[in-house]
Amino acid sequence: MGLALLLAFMRDARDAGKSITVQSLPEDMRQIARVSGVTELLGIH
User: Fold this and answer.
1) Are 21 and 43 in contact (CB under 8 A)?
2) Which residue blocks in 1-45 are alpha helix, DSSP H?
3) Radius of gyration for the alpha carbons in the chain, expressed in angstroms and rounded
4) Nearest alpha-carbon partner for 3 in 28, 29, 25
5) Per residue in 1-45, pLDDT tens?
6) N or C, fewer C-beta in 10 Å, the chain?
7) Are 3 and 38 in contact (CB under 8 A)?
8) What is the pTM of this model?
9) Annotated domain spans of the chain
C-alpha cells in the first residue's frame, strides 16, 4: 500500500467520524513519510 493511499484512507475515515491507527509501517514508507513531512499525520516518530 502506498503512502498516498494510506493518507487517503485516513482522511476518508476522519470524514466519516472514524480513525485509523497505523500499527506497523515498513521502514521504506517511514523514510518517505519523514522526507515528506507527514509523520505527525500518521502518528509515527
Assistant:
1) yes
2) 3-15, 27-36, 39-42
3) 10
4) 29
5) 689 999 999 999 999 999 888 888 999 999 999 999 999 988 887
6) C
7) yes
8) 0.78
9) 3-42
Q: Which amino acid is at 25?
A: L
| Of 17, 20, 23, 27, nearest in space to 5 by CA | 20
| End-to-end alpha carbon distance in the chain | 20
Instruction: Tell the burial category of 33 from Cβ atoms under 10 Å away from its Cβ (0-12, 13-18, 19+).
Output: buried
Instruction: Give the integer Cα–Cα distance in Å for 35 and 18.
Output: 27
Cell numbers at 38, concatenated: 507527514
